[in-house]
C-alpha cells in the first residue's frame, strides 16, 4: 500500500550527483512526509532498499547490476555504506531508494540520483606560462627626503626609535599617505593609528599606503620609526590631498621617545640617493595567463566530461562558454600535500566539427597575496593548469584530450587578478575570439611544462563557491558613494561605456567615514579595487577576486549603466529561518547568517575585507555550533578538518590557522582545541561518525601533545602561547585558567568520542584524565568562596561550561558569576567566553540575566551594532562608538563571525530547539520566552524540517511543533509534564506559574 514517506535529497558523499567519487560512496537521503496530513507513529522508516545500475536505462528497467541491497531493516538514512560493485574509473552509477514505514506502507522508488567514479591517475601534463611576472613598479616619493634625528648620523645610526611630527591643514576630505621607514614604522593622525609597516625583514622595502578621511581643520601626523639594529635609519613620507603634497624634509620635527623636546629633523638623503635608492611598490601583480587548444571532433558526441585542476585558480571554457559558474576552483589546500580537482559534464558544449578548449589561470592562494604583511608566493611562483577531456562518441569510439605541449599561451585583457588587491581588465588588450575555434594563435607562445612539486590529487569534497542570491542593488548617497544596503563578500559586476582609455575604478569599503567618504584604513594593505579600462561598451564581472564591502565608490570618466553586487560563498543550502517579536534580534540573526556567508569561502576565514582572510581555528571552534543552525556545513567542515590535519605539527600541536600560512603553527588554548571541538559539533548536528573516525588519530596525537606539555595532569606549563580571551572588554583572564579549562574540555570530549567509536578502554582513560584535570583546576584556580582566578566573566563561563567544578564550589561559583553579571549589567567577554556566556546563565537558572545581556543595545552588547545600522557581526565590541569613532584600524573588521556564536543560544533558548541525540534523531523543544511575545524557527535538520513556533499568552505559552518523519521531540514547557511527540504537527499550551 502507499506509504506515508517519500525519500528526497539523495546524495553520495553528501553531494548531489557528484561527478568524481573515489571508491565506494556513502549514500544518504531525507525521508519526507508523502502528504500534508498529520502522520503520527506511522511515519517512521523501518526498512530501506537501494538499487544501483551502471546506466539510467538499466535503472528504469529495474536491472540493478551494481547493487540491490534488498530490504534492510533500519531507520538509518545517512552514512549508508555502498556494498555493490564499484563502476570503472570515469563511469557513472545511477541509484534509487525506496522506504517502508511503520505501517508497512511502501514509498515506491525515489527519483534517480547518480555519481561518477573519478579518473584513474592523472594523465595530463601541467602547463603554464612562465614569462616575466612583471616588476613591482617604483613608487612616487619624488620631492620627499629621508630624515632622522639630528643627534646622530642616520646612515650609521644606533639601534633605537625616533618620532617625527608634521602638522597640516585639511579641507575635510581624505588624505593619501605613502610611507616607508628603516627598519619599522607606524603612523598616527590626531592620536589615531592609521598605518603600520608589514613586518618582516627589510620592511622599509615595502612602502605602505592608506587613505585617511579627515575633518576640515588642522591635524597632526606622528610617525614612529624603529631602527632595529645599528645601521641606516630614516623616514620618508608623503601626504597628498587633492593637488597639494606635504613631503618629509628638514621642516618636519623629530624627538626621541621619553623626551618632550621636538627639534628640526635632519635631512639624510634625497629620494633615490644611497643607501636606500629607488623603492619599488612591493607589489607584484602579474597578468593571468590565457591557455587554449583547438579540438577536432570525430562525430556526434554521446557524453563528454572535463576534469580540471590547477596550482592557482582557473576558469575553463569551451567555445567561449564557461563550463561552470564556480568561483576559485580548485580551492585552497596545502598544495604540497593535496590538490583537489573538479569534474564537469560538458556534453552539450562539445559539438560540431571542432571546438576550442580554453582556460584562464590566475594566482589565487597558490602565489597571490594571502594574509597580512604583503606576502605572496606562499606555495610557489609557477602557475599550472591541467585538464582531461574524455569524449564518448555515439559510434562507441572515444577520444581523450589532455593538457600537453600542443597548447598555446598568452596574456590578455586581465592586467592582474588578486584576492586582496583586486582585478584590472583593459578591453583593448583582450584578443577578440581567442576562446573560439578558428582563432589565429600563431603568435602565441608554447606552454611551459611541469609543476614545482608532486602532490596527491583528490576529488573536490564539498559544494563549490558560487554567486549567491539575491542580487544586491544600490542606492546612491552623497559624494558619489553607492550603498548596497548589506555588508557582503563578493563582487560587483559593472557595465560601462566610454572612448578608448576611459576607465572606471570601483573602490570598496565596509563602512563610511564621518564625512561620508569611504573608510578604508581598516583594510590595511588590501587595495580592494577593481578597474575596467574601456574601448567602447563592456561589462566586467570579476572572477578571480572578492571583497568585503557594503559601499562602492566608482571613480573615473566612463559612463556607468549598471552595477550589481553578488555575494560569493561555499554555503549552498541555508537551513535556519529565525524570527521573533523583536526586530532587533531578527536583524542580529540576519547579521550572523550574512557574516557566515561572507567568511565560508573555501575555509572558515576571520574576515573577508582586509589583508588576512585566514582559516583561524579559534574563531571556527566558537562558531561551529551556530554555523550548523544557519547552513549545511557538514562537507565544508569535513574538508577544513583535513586541512587541520595537514597543518598539524609533528609533535601533535594544532595551528592558529589552517592551512598554515602567515600565522603560526602553535594555536594555543582555545584555538588548537578546534581540532577536537569542531568534529564533536559536527557529530552533534549531523550524527557524523565518519568525521570522528577521520579525525581520531589526529585528535589523539594532539592529546599526547597536551600531556607532554603540561606540568602534571592539567597544570599549565610555565611558558606557552595563548591569545587569551581575545578582544575582551575589561582585560584578559589568566592564561593558565584558559589552558587547563580547555585541556579538561578536550579530555571530556575525547572520552565521549572514544565511546561513540566503541573504544571503551580509551574512553575510560580520557574520563580519568578529565577527572584529574578537574581536580587540578579546582585546587589551583578556585578559592573556597567560589572565586575563580581572574574573577572575570570568562573565568566562570569556561569553568561552568566545561564542567570543571564540583559542589560546593560549583554552587558558590555560580552565585559569584551571577552577581558579577548583575553588578556589571553587561558582558565583558571576548572570543572564548562569549559563546557560552548566555547558555551558562540559563543553565544556572538565570535566564533573565541571559536575556538582559542579549537585549542590551548599548556598548558592549550584541544589539549595539544593530542599533547603529550594522548588517554583519563586528570583530570588536567597540568597532565603532559615538564617543571614540572607529577602533584601532590595525584590527577592526566589520564582518567577523566569532561574536555571532550567540546564535546557538538564540536557537536553543529563544526558539528552544537542540538535539538530544546526534543528528536530531531525538530533539528537545524547550523555549524560554523571556521578554519576547513570540518566536518561530524553521530548521532543515539532517533528519528533516523541524518547525517550532510559540506565542506568549496571558495564561502561559502556546506552542506549535512539526516533527519530521523517523524522529521524536521531547517537549518541555513550564507548568506541564514533559511530553514525547512523534512525527507530525502538534500543538501544546502551558500555564506559567
Can you walk me through this structure?
This protein has 993 residues and is α+β, with helices and mostly antiparallel strands. It has 16 helices and 58 strands. Strands 31, 32, 36, 37, 38, 39, 42, 43, 44 and 45 form a ten-stranded mixed sheet that branches. Strand 47 (600-601) and strand 48 form a beta hairpin. Helix 4 runs parallel beside helix 6, helix 4 (617-630) packs parallel to helix 16 (903-911) and helix 10 runs antiparallel to helix 11 (809-824). The chain is globular and about 90 Å long. The model has no long low-confidence stretch (mean pLDDT 94).
Please render the helix and strand layout as text.
Blueprint: E1 5-12, E2 26-33, E3 47-53, H1 56-60, E4 67-68, E5 72-73, E6 80-81, E7 92-100, E8 113-116, E9 127-128, E10 145-148, E11 160-170, E12 174-182, E13 184-189, E14 192-196, E15 208-213, E16 217-227, E17 234-241, E18 244-247, E19 253-255, E20 263-264, E21 266-270, E22 289-296, E23 301-311, E24 313-318, E25 321-322, E26 338-345, E27 354-362, H2 364-367, E28 384-393, E29 398-402, E30 408-410, E31 414-418, E32 422-426, E33 445-446, E34 448-449, E35 456-459, E36 466-472, E37 475-477, E38 481-498, E39 503-509, E40 511-512, E41 518-519, E42 529-533, E43 536-540, E44 547-555, E45 559-569, E46 576-580, H3 583-599, E47 600-601, E48 603-604, H4 617-630, H5 634-647, H6 674-686, H7 689-709, H8 735-756, H9 760-781, H10 793-801, H11 809-824, H12 831-834, H13 837-843, H14 847-854, H15 863-867, E49 880-881, E50 885-886, H16 903-911, E51 913-915, E52 922-925, E53 934-941, E54 944-952, E55 956-963, E56 968-971, E57 979-981, E58 984-991
Parallel strand pairs: 26-35, 32-42, 52-56
Antiparallel strand pairs: 1-2, 2-6, 3-4, 3-5, 3-7, 7-8, 9-34, 10-21, 11-16, 11-19, 12-15, 12-17, 13-14, 13-16, 17-18, 19-20, 22-27, 22-30, 23-26, 23-28, 24-25, 24-27, 28-29, 30-33, 31-32, 36-45, 37-38, 38-43, 38-44, 38-45, 39-42, 39-44, 40-41, 46-53, 47-48, 49-50, 51-52, 53-54, 54-55, 55-58, ...
Helix pairs in contact: 4-6, 4-16, 5-6, 5-7, 6-7, 7-8, 8-9, 10-11, 13-14
Amino acid at each position: 500500500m502507499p506509504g506515508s514517506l517519500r525519500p528526497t535529497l539523495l546524495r553520495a558523499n553528501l553531494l548531489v550527483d557528484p561527478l568524481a567519487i573515489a571508491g565506494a560512496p556513502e549514500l544518504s537521503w531525507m525521508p519526507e512526509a508523502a502528504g500534508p496530513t498529520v502522520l503520527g507513529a506511522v511515519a517512521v522508516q523501518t526498512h530501506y532498499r537501494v538499487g544501483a545500475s551502471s546506466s539510467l536505462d538499466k535503472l528504469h528497467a529495474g536491472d540493478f547490476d551494481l547493487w540491490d541491497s534488498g530490504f534492510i531493516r533500519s531507520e538509518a538514512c545517512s552514512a549508508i555504506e555502498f556494498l555493490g560493485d564499484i563502476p570503472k574509473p570515469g563511469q557513472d552509477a545511477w541509484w534509487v531508494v525506496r522506504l517502508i514505514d511503520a505501517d508497512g506502507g511502501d514509498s515506491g522508488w525515489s527519483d534517480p540520483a547518480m555519481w561518477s567514479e573519478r579518473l584513474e591517475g592523472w594523465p595530463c601534463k601541467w602547463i603554464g606560462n612562465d614569462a616575466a611576472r612583471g616588476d613591482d613598479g617604483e613608487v612616487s616619493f619624488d620631492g620627499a627626503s629621508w630624515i632622522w634625528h639630528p643627534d646622530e648620523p642616520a646612515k650609521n645610526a644606533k639601534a633605537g626609535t625616533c618620532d617625527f611630527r608634521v602638522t597640516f591643514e585639511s579641507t575635510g576630505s581624505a588624505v593619501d599617505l605613502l610611507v616607508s621607514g628603516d627598519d619599522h614604522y607606524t603612523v598616527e593622525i590626531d592620536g589615531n593609528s592609521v598605518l603600520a609597516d608589514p613586518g618582516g625583514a627589510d620592511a622599509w622595502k615595502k612602502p605602505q599606503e592608506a587613505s585617511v578621511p579627515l575633518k576640515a581643520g588642522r591635524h597632526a601626523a606622528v610617525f614612529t620609526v624603529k631602527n632595529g639594529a645599528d645601521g641606516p635609519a630614516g623616514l620618508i613620507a608623503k601626504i597628498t590631498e587633492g593637488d597639494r603634497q606635504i613631503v618629509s624634509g628638514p621642516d618636519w620635527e623629530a624627538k626621541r621617545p621619553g623626551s618632550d623636546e621636538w627639534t628640526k629633523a635632519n635631512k639624510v638623503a634625497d629620494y633615490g640617493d644611497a643607501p636606500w635608492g629607488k623603492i619599488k611598490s612591493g607589489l607584484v601583480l602579474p597578468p593571468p595567463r590565457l591557455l587554449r587548444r583547438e579540438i577536432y571532433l570525430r562525430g556526434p558526441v554521446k557524453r563528454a566530461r572535463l576534469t580540471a585542476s590547477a596550482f592557482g585558480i582557473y576558469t575553463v571554457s569551451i567555445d567561449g562558454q564557461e563550463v561552470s559558474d564556480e568561483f576559485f576552483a580548485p580551492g585552497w589546500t596545502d598544495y604540497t600535500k593535496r590538490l583537489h580537482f573538479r569534474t564537469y559534464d560538458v556534453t552539450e558544449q562539445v559539438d560540431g566539427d571542432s571546438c576550442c578548449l580554453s582556460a584562464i589561470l590566475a594566482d589565487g592562494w597558490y602565489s597571490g597575496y594571502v594574509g597580512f604583511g604583503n606576502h605572496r608566493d606562499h606555495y610557489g611562483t609557477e602557475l599550472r593548469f591541467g585538464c582531461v577531456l574524455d569524449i564518448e562518441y555515439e559510434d562507441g569510439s572515444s577520444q581523450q584530450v589532455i593538457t600537453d605541449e600542443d597548447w598555446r599561451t598568452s596574456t590578455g585583457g586581465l592586467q592582474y587578478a588578486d584576492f586582496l588587491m583586486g582585478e584590472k581588465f583593459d578591453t583593448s588588450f583582450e584578443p577578440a575570439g581567442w576562446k573560439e575555434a578558428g582563432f589565429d594563435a600563431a603568435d602565441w607562445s608554447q606552454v611551459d611544462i611541469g609543476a614545482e612539486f608532486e602532490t596527491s590529487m583528490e576529488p573536490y569534497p564539498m559544494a563549490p563557491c558560487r554567486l549567491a542570491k539575491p542580487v544586491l542593488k544600490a542606492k546612491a548617497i552623497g559624494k558619489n558613494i553607492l550603498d548596497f544596503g548589506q555588508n557582503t563578500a563578493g563582487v560587483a559586476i559593472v557595465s560601462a561605456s566610454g572612448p578608448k582609455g576611459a576607465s572606471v575604478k570601483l573602490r570598496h569599503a565596509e563602512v563610511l567615514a564621518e564625512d561620508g567618504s569611504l573608510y578604508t584604513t581598516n583594510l590595511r594593505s588590501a587595495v580592494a579595487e577593481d578597474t575596467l579600462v574601456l574601448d567602447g561598451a563592456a561589462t566586467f564581472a570579476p572572477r578571480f577576486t572578492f571583497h568585503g564591502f557594503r559601499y562602492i565608490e566608482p571613480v573615473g570618466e566612463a559612463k556607468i549603466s549598471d552595477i550589481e553586487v553578488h555575494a560569493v560563498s561555499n554555503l549552498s543550502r541555508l537551513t535556519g529561518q529565525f524570527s521573533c517579536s523583536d526586530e532587533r534580534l531578527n536583524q542580529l540573526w540576519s547579521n550572523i547568517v550574512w557574516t557566515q556567508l561572507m567568511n565560508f569561502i573555501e575555509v572558515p576565514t576571520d574576515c573577508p575585507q582586509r589583508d588576512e582572510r585566514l582559516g583561524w581555528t579559534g574563531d571556527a571552534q566558537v562558531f561551529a555550533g551556530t554555523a550548523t543552525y544557519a547552513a549545511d556545513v557538514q562537507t565544508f567542515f569535513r574538508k577544513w578538518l583535513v586541512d587541520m590535519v595537514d597543518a598539524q605539527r609533528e609533535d601533535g600541536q594544532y595551528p592558529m590557522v589552517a592551512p598554515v600560512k602567515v600565522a603560526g603553527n602553535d594555536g594555543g588554548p582555545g584555538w588548537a582545541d578546534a581540532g577536537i571541538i569542531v568534529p564533536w559539533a559536527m557529530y552533534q548536528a549531523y550524527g557524523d561518525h565518519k568525521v570522528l573516525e577521520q579525525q581520531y588519530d589526529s585528535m589523539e596525537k594532539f592529546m599526547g601533545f597536551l600531556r607532554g606539555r603540561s606540568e602534571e595532569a592539567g597544570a599549565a606549563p610555565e611558558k606557552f602561547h595563548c591569545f587569551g580571551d581575545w578582544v575582551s572588554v575589561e582585560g584578559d583572564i589568566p592564561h593558565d585558567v584558559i589552558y587547563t579549562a580547555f585541556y579538561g574540555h578536550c579530555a571530556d570530549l575525547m572520552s565521549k568520542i572514544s565511546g561513540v567509536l566503541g573504544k571503551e578502554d580509551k574512553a575510560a582513560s580520557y574520563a580519568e584524565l578529565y577527572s584529574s584535570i578537574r581536580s587540578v583546576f579546582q585546587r589551583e584556580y578556585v578559592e573556597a568562596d567560589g572565586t575563580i582566578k581572574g574573577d572575570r566573566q570568562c573565568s566562570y563561563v569556561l569553568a561552568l561550561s566545561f564542567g570543571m567544578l564540583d559542589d560546593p564550589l560549583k554552587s558558590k561559583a555560580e552565585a559569584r558569576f551571577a552577581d558579577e553579571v548583575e553588578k556589571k549589567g553587561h558582558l565583558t567577554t571576548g572570543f572564548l567566553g562569549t559563546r557560552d556566556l548566555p547558555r551558562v546563565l540559563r543553565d544556572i537558572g538565570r535566564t533573565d540575566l541571559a536575556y538582559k545581556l542579549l537585549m542590551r543595545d548599548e556598548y558592549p552588547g550584541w544589539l549595539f551594532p544593530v542599533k547603529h545600522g550594522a548588517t554583519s557581526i563586528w570583530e570588536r565590541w567597540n568597532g565603532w562608538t559615538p564617543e571614540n569613532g572607529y577602533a584601532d584600524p590595525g584590527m577592526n573588521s566589520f564582518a567577523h563571525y566569532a561574536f555571532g556564536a550567540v546564535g546557538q543560544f538564540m536557537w536553543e533558548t529563544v526558539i528552544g530547539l537542540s538535539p538530544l541525540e546526534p543528528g536530531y534523531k531525538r530533539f528537545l523543544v524547550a523555549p524560554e520566552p523571556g521578554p519576547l511575545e513570540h518566536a518561530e524557527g524553521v530548521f532543515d535538520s539532517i533528519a528533516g524540517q523541524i518547525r517550532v513556533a510559540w506565542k506568549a499568552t496571558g495564561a502561559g505559552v502556546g506552542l506549535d511543533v512539526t516533527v519530521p518523519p523517523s524522529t521524536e521531540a521531547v517537549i518541555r514547557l513550564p507548568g506541564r509534564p514533559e511530553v514525547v511527540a512523534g512525527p507530525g504537527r502538534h500543538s501544546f499550551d502551558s500555564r506559567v506559574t
